[in-house]
Amino acid sequence: MASVLQLDDVTVRRGGRDIVSHLTWEVADGERWVVLGRNGAGKTTLVQLAAARLHPTTGTVDVLEERLGKVDIFELRPRIGLASAALAEHIPADESVLDVVLTASYGVTGRWRETYEDLDSERAEALLAAFGMASMTQRTYGTLSEGERKRTQIARALMTDPELLLLDEPAAGLDLGGREELVAALAELAADDRSPVLVVVTHHVEEIPPHFTHALLLRDGGVQAAGPLEEVLTAEHLSATFGVDLEVAHSDGRWSARAAAAGSRGRRSA
Ligand SMILES: Nc1ncnc2c1ncn2[C@@H]1O[C@H](COP(=O)(O)OP(=O)(O)OP(=O)(O)O)[C@@H](O)[C@H]1O
């Protein structure tokens, strides 16, 4: 299987501190990854590296078999879909939902003088429909609920038909219904062979969609554990990652975790 992401002994130094430290991680074609870790663990920094928006201080990063520092990043970036809070801040509130998705073809936010082909519009509409937004394409982005905004951002990230899709905390700020709708949409995406390789950052194992295959647990900028979900999402690994004694459960493709009951140390599930 082709390597989609290959980070080798990567360190990112900021403010005199290593915020990612000697990190090695490989993602292959067809895989669907979740990245978990406590606040400040380095998840967003890792996504920035994978999105070719940040270079490592030391070590090497290959994205879609292109080495950062050697490849023209403006040719590489359209092959990568990214949805993050930082990018969403640049979406104008008065932009129509359809244009939010359509402008991704030009790597811009905010429509100006670009001309779009009918095929582009059809694709944008189909993507919005796939995320339950068919009836809202003419609404302005500023009038959407947080859940609707998140689904619009993912449709936008898919517009360029990327080979790698990176979603940084797509469920942040959603209510329970919104989270479940998003998880269902991501499960459908994950189950489809034609989908890009997926990497989703989250704080909560409850947000891992069915059909996801692998997990990376980050702690203090390094790898706590990485590999197939069932091997990585153990009570031991998650407890070490979050610094809390946790119990983990898994059923019907969904995961949950909570603080271990007093006296339950040593008889954790999963
Ligand atoms: N430019 C910078 N200068 C100094 N420190 C930075 C810089 N950017 C990030 N950091 C620090 O690096 C650490 C990792 O940040 P990052 O945003 O990658 O974490 P995260 O795991 O995404 O956190 P969260 O879950 O809170 O979003 C944090 O402690 C953050 O304060």
From TrEMBL:
Alphabetically ordered keywords of this record: ATP-binding, Nucleotide-binding
PANTHER family with a match to the protein in the record: SKFA PEPTIDE EXPORT ATP-BINDING PROTEIN SKFE
GO MF term list: ATP binding; ATP hydrolysis activity
PROSITE patterns the record matches: ABC_TRANSPORTER_2 (PS50893)
Occurrences of domain ABC transporter (ranges): 5-245
Protein's UniProt name: Putative CONSERVED ATP-BINDING PROTEIN ABC TRANSPORTER
Pfam families for this protein: ABC_tran
